[in-house]
Amino acid sequence: MEQQPLVLLVDDEEDLCTLMQMSLSRLGIKTHIAHRLEQAKRLLTDNRYDACLTDLNLPDGNGLQLVEWINQRFPSLPVAVLTAYGNMEIAIAALKAGAFDFVSKPINQKHLEQLLQKAFNQPIGNLNSKEESLEQKLLIGQSLPIQQLRITLNKIARSQAPVFITGESGTGKEVIANLVHRLSNRNEGPFIAINCGAIPTELMESELFGHKKGSFTGATQDKQGLIQSAHGGSLFLDEVAELPLSMQVKLLRAVQEKRIRPVGSDTEIDVDFRVISASHQDLEALVQQGRFRQDLFFRIHVMDLVLPPLRERGNDIILLAHHFIQKISHEWDIAPKQLTERAKNFLLSQYYPGNVRELRNIIERAITLSDDEKIDLPQLQSAPLRYPAASSSDEPEESTTLRSDILLASKKLPDEGLELYLENIEKDILMNALNLTHWNRTLAAKKLGMSFRSLRYRLKKFGLDTEEE
């Protein structure tokens, strides 16, 4: 016979405890009750609980003290905090102290049931093995910053608290957000990623909250919003700073109340999701400038994850380079290539303003340009402009100087961004070569000084390869 879950209720209101005890009993959950802080500590020492619910205000202390005490002695025990309705500052403080989640008074039976269900399903015993297997795929590196990141992830995985990820462009914010989701007890639910800067302002409310048929011109049928799609899982809001102020108000309500109203609907829909957000901008500065709501900032900025730039990760650069070589070679069904020592030293000397994303692009181009089993300096130096952190004695200065002259000659930074600017130049050169050779691709490849395979890859990349395989 399966053993009943055991929950400790800590509250000095006897009537409330009795009511909760009756409600949980109908769900097959056994409870113990404590009315004081010291009584709760004794029960926790003498019994093994599956979860703990504690009020903030106790006669001989407060719930935050109990959360910290439990976190030190029983770190695997999920503890949730009961808060007065709307007291979000205290709720956030409880989450930062180590609480699993919080529930507002008066207690909603449905929300209480969902909270305890997540607590019981929480990956406690098998977290480490799961973490290792996922990290091998998603979090590569042995540097101190990455080791510290793993420790923080281990703590955050047990919580329902909102997570805010910061880091330079290309450091892997979506990868880490996905890892937070997959290590949590929500891993069987959906992971919905939204780039807030990529949705047109006029479509944003419909995309996020959904709409009813006929609510506006073109709404020919009901549409489920992305927030509702994240029900039971995690919602990742990338570049959350790009949200207009009007949408920030609606998002705050959705995050705080876990309810949304589709465009054109008269009723609200309950949604259960964990919010993970990210930005490369300084949200605190945007709050001071009036460009980001302070209340939303505090609501999503509970647990911090700061991703280190690639240039601070030392030999992780080589580990990542090998990983990308293996991954790309598998995708292209070719034999993996080897980095020469000169190539490794060159990679370690770069500044990487585009971080991990830039490194992958460099490796992908180098594989394309390599005609043998090795990747050496010529293939790496043909990649787009980089900013060296230190010069290498093996590296000729010609390519860097040449690219610097091109940028200086333009007299201004490209409006479309450096990557797209360089891709447009590359595409124009390919088209010129093809036109000059009357689309004889073999001859075009010779004129461009590259292999036929390299040319074919680039044509496919820009959608110019019209011949069938």
Automatic annotation (TrEMBL):
Record-level Gene Ontology MF annotations: ATP binding; sequence-specific DNA binding
Pfam families given in the database record: AAA_lid_14, HTH_8, Response_reg, Sigma54_activat
InterPro entries: AAA+_ATPase (IPR003593), AAA_lid_NorR (IPR058031), CheY-like_superfamily (IPR011006), Homeodomain-like_sf (IPR009057), HTH_Fis (IPR002197), P-loop_NTPase (IPR027417), Sig_transdc_resp-reg_receiver (IPR001789), Sigma_54_int (IPR002078)
Modification 4-aspartylphosphate occurs at: 55
Residue ranges occupied by any Sigma-54 factor interaction domain in the UniProt entry: 139-368
Recorded superkingdom: Bacteria
Any single biological process term in GO: regulation of DNA-templated transcription
Keywords: ATP-binding, DNA-binding, Nucleotide-binding, Phosphoprotein, Transcription, Transcription regulation
Domain Response regulatory: 6-120
Signal peptide region: none
Protein name, entry field: Transcriptional regulatory protein ZraR
Gene name in the database record: zraR
